[in-house]
Amino acid sequence: MRHTRLARFAQLSAVAATVALASAPAMAEQWRGWNVHPPEYPNSVALDSFAAEVAEKTEGRIEPKVYHNGVLGAQPDAIEQARNGALNFGNFNMGPMGPIVPETNVLSLPFLFNSEQDMYRLMDGEIGDKFEAALAEKGLVALSWFGSGARSLYNTDHPIETPDDVKGLKVRVMNNDLYVDMIDALGGNATPMAYSEVYQSLKTGVIDGAENNFPSYDSSGHFEVAGFYSNTDHLILPECLCVSKASWEELPEEDQQIVREAAENAAQEQRELWAEGSRASRDAVTEAGAQINDVADKAAFLQAMQPVYDDFLAQHPDLEPLVEEIQAAQAN
Ligand code: GTR
C-alpha cells in the first residue's frame, strides 16, 4: 500500500516537473566579454551598449556582461580564450591578433592606411570581408570594426622628431614580432609587454617609451610617466567586436541577426565616441603637462620602416596581393 502511494506520488511529481520545465523560459546564456579599457573609454561604452541591446532584443535569452579593465587577463590570452569558447566575446585589436591570424598582420604594416576614414571605408567593404574570413577560420566571428585612431610614439625625456631620436630607446610594443622589427628599423630596442605592465615599467625605467593613441595614453596614465608624445601616426589599426565561433554557432538564426545588428550599432557609436574622446584626451594630457610634438616629416619614418614591408612580404609572398589591393584602394 505504502509503496503504491509512493509510486503514485513519484509519478505525479514527474508530471509536475515536466510541466514546469515546458513553461519556464529557456535558460539565459550568460556571455562573458573581454575588454582591456576602463568603463568610461569609448570602446567600453559601446560594448556596454552592445550588451544591453542584445539582452533586451533577445528578451534575456542572451545576457552579455562586459568585464572592463582587462580583469579577465592580457589580450593574447583573451584572444585564445575566445577562440576556444572559454570567453564569448571581446573587443580585440588586430595588432596582437597577428601571431594567431597571420593575414591580420597586413594591418600592422606601418603607414598602411592613409587615414582613419580610409581604414573604416576599406574594413567595412570587401577588404574587411577577407579579414573576417581569416578570423573565422581561427574561431572568431568579427561582427563589426571599431577604430583606434593612429598610434604614435611617446617617451620619458625628449621629443621624437626624426627616426634618429629613437636610437637606443627601449620601447614597449604589443605582442607581435612585426612591431619588434618596426622599432628595430628605427634603431630602438623593442620590448613586447602586456598593456597592464607599461605604466610601472615606464615609471621605473625598465622602458623609455611606448606607442599608442591619445585615449589610451590618457586613460592608462602613461602621460604621467612619459610626458613627450610625438605624432608619428605610424599605425592605424582596426579592432573587432568579435564573438567566439563556438558561441555563435549555438545561436538560432534569429539571435545571430540580433547580435550582429547590435555589434554594428556598437561600432557606429564607438566611432562617434572615438572622434570626440580623442580630442578630449589630447586636451586633457596637454592640460596635465604632456608635451605634444607634431612630427614634421612623417615620410622619414615611413622610409626608415620600409624594411618591415620588405621582410614581411619576403616571408609571406601570398599576402602581397592583399597589401597591394589596400594600397591601390587609397591611391588618388
Ligand atoms: C590600445 C588598444 C588595446 C591594446 C592596447 C595596447 O590602444 O585599444 O586593445 O592593444 O592599445 O597597446 O596593448
Automatic annotation (TrEMBL):
Signal peptide feature range: 1-28
InterPro entries: DctP_fam, TRAP_DctP, TRAP_DctP_sf
GO molecular function: carbohydrate binding
Gene Ontology biological process terms in this record: transmembrane transport
Family annotation (Pfam families): DctP
Keywords in alphabetical order: Signal
GO CC term (a single one): outer membrane-bounded periplasmic space
Record-given protein name: C4-dicarboxylate ABC transporter
Organism whose genome encodes this protein: Halomonas huangheensis
